[in-house]
């Protein structure tokens, strides 16, 4: 992971200083011809460096979520392991959330820090040409990863006392009729040969509870990965915010929702001493309200008025209608200005309409010493002729009049909170329904399924559905589309709601099926009923006193019975006391 972070930041130090094409302030020059597009992108091959960095990130992180979780589970009591694993995953969620906050702060620092004075380049973080110091966070996280790696190498294979928890854990393994609980085939060989691997694969893939929990994890992972990647972009587009502010809003919601939800899920399993069935029922109970919270995407914000995109030039905002013309158009007010689509620098006119650049707004000059930069003599900006405005346009996007941001963030927090509350109980159910010796292998299979069907296609699916709502693409010199400058907010909301509803519905379905097909071991089934519990020793069956429904008995070798001291009259298992 440390090496991956260093590799990811490497292009900053090998690609030279950042330069941008065109002037940040582009005026309308009457009679000028549009300049030819001469800028060619020479840095595109650096994407392969980023691919390599991400590959190393994944290779380093994978053992943490398979071997690391199994290591914790094997060395902790059965009923409390979920709480500690919840703490473990809570930090795994808090980390990215802190990254959102720190990343948003770093993006307000110019990319070539200590090499270029940002005040001398003539652009601010509000400019679309601004590039923040994206690489600082990767250097910090890379160094921290190297620091943490060395003490982790000092842990033993098993902590003292691990064997004491093994037998209790085997009681909840999924049981098929005619098979032994906790087969020791793999343990007796002492080696991981191909027959053992094939046998483990067969046992796991024919375990319906395990497989349906995997599919539920894939659905949850699809949504988490998609929202983690594109929630800032969605908030930025819906509420007309800066990218850094949108990322920080997501961070503010993700820290308490992700960290608190993950910890709470693990704690509740321990607090109420839930078995596998109880855990799956708990997951279902939390998934249903989360499903309805997704309907928040039915509420969306109207797009700001954008000249040439959803309103004609020269119209007043109060009379304008959002028509979404499908293609960027110009007007007679800027035809002879020599404007080019290469110089994207949006401005907001006093008419409440946004323009592609000062040139497309017909602005002939700027007002000195203004921040943000203000413009006057804008031929495309409409205003009340009975007044003389001090300026006619200002650098930056028009602010959205939508007031739904606090409400949306509250419901979005609930969606993330409920989703993370489920994560730890679902993981605990997974570990308990498979044989102890196959737990690491089971987590490996679960992560393969969750990645291949969830977190890998999730961002791709979300990104494609968001791209379908783009109304104004950046045009490059090679006629390929670049970034999207303007989205249809309504369609974006509906597309994301459709994905989220489908994912949550499938998650509920798979949790339900895992509960229906779950079968505990016979020993566990007997323990589940306080009136019929019988512990068998040496093959002899016990005798239950028909006059007492609250006292279980233990069969002795001589056939006599005595009260089971491991169970009190309230029917609570003795392990609760321990």
What's this entry about, in short?
By secondary structure, the chain is α+β, with helices and mostly antiparallel strands. It has 18 helices and eleven strands.
Mind sketching the topology for me?
Blueprint: H1 2-9, H2 11-14, H3 47-65, H4 67-74, H5 78-106, H6 136-152, H7 166-170, H8 185-189, H9 194-205, H10 208-239, H11 243-271, H12 276-293, E1 305-306, E2 347-349, E3 353-355, E4 363-367, E5 374-378, E6 393-395, H13 405-432, H14 439-455, H15 457-467, E7 470-475, E8 481-487, H16 489-516, H17 522-528, E9 534-535, E10 553-555, E11 561-563, H18 574-577
Parallel strand pairs: 1-3, 9-10
Antiparallel strand pairs: 2-3, 2-6, 4-5, 5-6, 7-8, 10-11
Q: How would you characterize the overall build of this protein?
A:
The chain is α+β, with helices and mostly antiparallel strands and 578 residues long. The C terminus is likely disordered. It has a domain of 218 residues: Growth Hormone, Chain: A (Up-down Bundle), CATH 1.20.1250.20. The chain is built from 18 helices and 11 strands. It has a 6-stranded mixed sheet, with no helix packed on it. A hairpin with a 6-residue loop joins β4 and β5.
Q: Return the average pLDDT rounded to an integer.
A: 79
Structural classification: alpha+beta
In CATH, the topology of the domain at 196-301 and 408-519 is named Growth Hormone, Chain: A
Radius of gyration, taken over Cα atoms and rounded to an integer in Å: 30 Å
Number of strands: 11
Helical percentage: 40-55%
Shape: elongated
Q: How are the strands of the biggest sheet laid out side by side? A: 1-3-2-6-5-4
How much of the sequence lies in strands comes to 5-15%
Main sheet attributes: strand count, strand direction, barrel closure: 6 strands, mixed
Outline the low-pLDDT stretches: 181-191, 528-578
**Number of helical segments?**
18
CATH class of the domain at 196-301 and 408-519: Mainly Alpha
Which CATH architecture of the domain at 196-301 and 408-519 is right?
Up-down Bundle
For the record, what is the CATH homologous superfamily label of the domain at 196-301 and 408-519?
MFS general substrate transporter like domains
- Measured distance between first and last alpha carbons: 39 Å
Question: What pattern of helices and strands is seen along the backbone?
Answer: HHHHHHHHHHHHEEEEEEHHHEEHHEEEH
Subcellular location: Cell membrane
Region (Disordered): 526-578
InterPro entries: Kazal_dom (IPR002350), Kazal_dom_sf (IPR036058), MFS_dom (IPR020846), MFS_trans_sf (IPR036259), OATP (IPR004156)
GO molecular function, one term: sodium-independent organic anion transmembrane transporter activity
């Amino acid at each position: 992971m440390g090496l991956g972070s260093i590799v990811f930041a490497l292009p900053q130090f090998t690609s030279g200083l950042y330069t941008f094409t065109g002037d940040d302030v582009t005026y309308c020059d009457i009679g000028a011809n549009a300049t030819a597009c001469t800028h060619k992108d020479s840095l595109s091959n650096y994407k392969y460096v980023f691919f390599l960095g991400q590959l190393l990130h994944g290779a380093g992180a994978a053992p943490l979520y398979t071997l690391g979780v199994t290591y914790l589970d094997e060395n902790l009591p059965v009923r409390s392991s979920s709480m500690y694993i919840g703490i473990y995953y809570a930090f795994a969620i808090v980390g990215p959330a802190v990254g959102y906050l720190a990343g948003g702060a770093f993006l307000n620092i110019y990319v070539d820090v200590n090499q270029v004075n940002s005040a001398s380049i003539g652009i601010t973080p509000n400019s679309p040409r601004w590039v923040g110091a994206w690489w600082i966070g990767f250097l910090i996280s890379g160094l921290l990863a190297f620091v943490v790696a060395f003490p982790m190498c000092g842990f033993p294979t098993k902590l003292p006392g691990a064997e004491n928890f093994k037998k209790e854990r085997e009681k909840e393994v999924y049981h098929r009729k005619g098979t032994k609980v906790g087969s020791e085939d793999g343990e007796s060989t002492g080696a991981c040969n191909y027959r053992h691997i094939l046998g483990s694969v067969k046992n796991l893939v024919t375990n319906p509870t395990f497989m349906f929990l995997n599919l539920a994890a894939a659905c949850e992972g699809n949504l988490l990965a998609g929202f983690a990647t594109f929630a800032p972009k969605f908030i930025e587009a819906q509420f007309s915010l800066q990218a850094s502010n949108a990322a920080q809003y997501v961070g503010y919601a993700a820290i308490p929702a992700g960290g608190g939800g993950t910890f709470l899920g693990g704690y509740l399993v321990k607090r109420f001493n839930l078995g596998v069935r109880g855990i799956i029922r708990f997951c279902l109970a939390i998934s249903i309200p989360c499903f309805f919270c997704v309907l928040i995407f039915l509420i969306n914000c109207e797009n700001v008025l954008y000249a040439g995109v959803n309103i004609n030039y020269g119209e007043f905002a109060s009379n304008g209608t959002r028509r979404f013309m499908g293609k960027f158009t110009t007007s007679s007010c800027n035809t002879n200005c020599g404007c080019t689509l290469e110089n994207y620098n949006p401005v907001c006119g006093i008419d409440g309409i946004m323009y592609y650049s000062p040139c497309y707004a017909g602005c002939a000059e700027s007002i000195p010493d203004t921040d943000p930069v203000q413009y006057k003599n804008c031929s495309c900006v409409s205003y009340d002729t009975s007044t003389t405005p001090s300026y006619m346009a200002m650098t930056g996007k028009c602010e959205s009049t939508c007031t739904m941001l606090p409400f949306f963030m509250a419901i979005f927090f609930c969606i993330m909170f409920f989703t993370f509350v489920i994560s730890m109980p679902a993981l605990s159910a997974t570990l308990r329904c498979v044989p102890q010796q196959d737990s690491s292998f089971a987590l490996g299979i679960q992560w393969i399924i969750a990645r291949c069907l969830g977190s890998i296609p999730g961002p791709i699916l979300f990104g494609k559905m968001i791209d379908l709502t783009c109304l104004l693409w950046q045009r490059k010199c090679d006629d390929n589309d670049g970034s999207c400058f303007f989205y249809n907010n309504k369609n974006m909301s509906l597309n994301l709601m459709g994905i989220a509803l489908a994912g949550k519905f499938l998650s509920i379905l798979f949790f339900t099926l895992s509960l229906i097909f779950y079968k505990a071991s016979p020993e566990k089934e007997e323990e589940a009923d306080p009136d019929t519990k019988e512990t068998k020793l040496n093959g002899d069956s016990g005798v239950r006193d028909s006059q007492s429904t609250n006292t279980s008995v233990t069969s002795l070798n001589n056939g006599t019975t005595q009260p089971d001291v491991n169970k009190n009259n309230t029917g609570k298992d003795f392990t609760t006391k321990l």
